[in-house]
């Protein structure tokens, strides 16, 4: 199964952009790159996903490398409510879904 | 409101006493999945279901059973729970094609097996 690698933790200042990296060198051609986040005492929450092109939604942007072996989740202006564990996962149509350890984002006021 | 519900939210039980954790979604999703979350181990997939009567093993299926008799429900069954199944469990569902569908997660069930 394709795996993802993320830094254990990152820090950001409030109202500054945050770039969360993810490596997925064994990604297959049909895998989508998904990002979820988990706030304390809650279930994971969908953030964004994409296949090849960069994606934007109201929560974040997803930048996907041309070779698709890495991606970056961009939070344009971090707020204290963005402090969470962020997971980058690959999803194929076979149904398996493997979460890595995620990145714990700390946002400082 | 679109949601995934799980019951119970908290459960303390004893070794060997069969239990079922229910999961229900109201979004008419084909795909449903169960995960467990343990400190330092992240989220690990137990079982998943691509549609009614179609289930498959995830990464950690040992000691668990599932069934998918109806589209909306995907119960997780522990026939003989053991202390190493003490964990936080999440159910999730998604629509459209599996790869291109966002997963919606339930609120979690905290299980303690003594």
Describe the structure.
The complex is a heterodimer of chains A (109) and B (114). Chain A is mostly beta strands and 109 residues long. Chain A is built from no helices and ten strands. Chain A has strands at residues 9-13, 18-23, 32-38, 45-50, 55-56, 61-64, 70-75, 84-91, 97-98, 103-108. The mean pLDDT of chain A is 92. Chain B has strands spanning 4-7, 10-13, 19-25, 31-38, 42-51, 54-57, 65-66, 76-78, 87-94, 103-105, 109-113. Chain B has 114 residues and is mainly β. In chain B, strands 2, 4, 5, 6, 9, 10 and 11 form a seven-stranded mixed β-sheet that branches. In chain B, strands 1-3-8-7 form a four-stranded antiparallel β-sheet, with no helix packed on it. Chain B has no helices and eleven strands. Classes of the chains: A mainly beta (109), B mainly beta (114). Chains A and B meet through strand 3, strand 4 and strand 9 of A and strand 4, strand 5 and strand 10 of B.
List the keywords.
heterodimer; A: about 110 residues; mainly beta; B: about 110 residues; seven-stranded mixed sheet; four-stranded antiparallel sheet; 11 strands; about 0% helix; globular
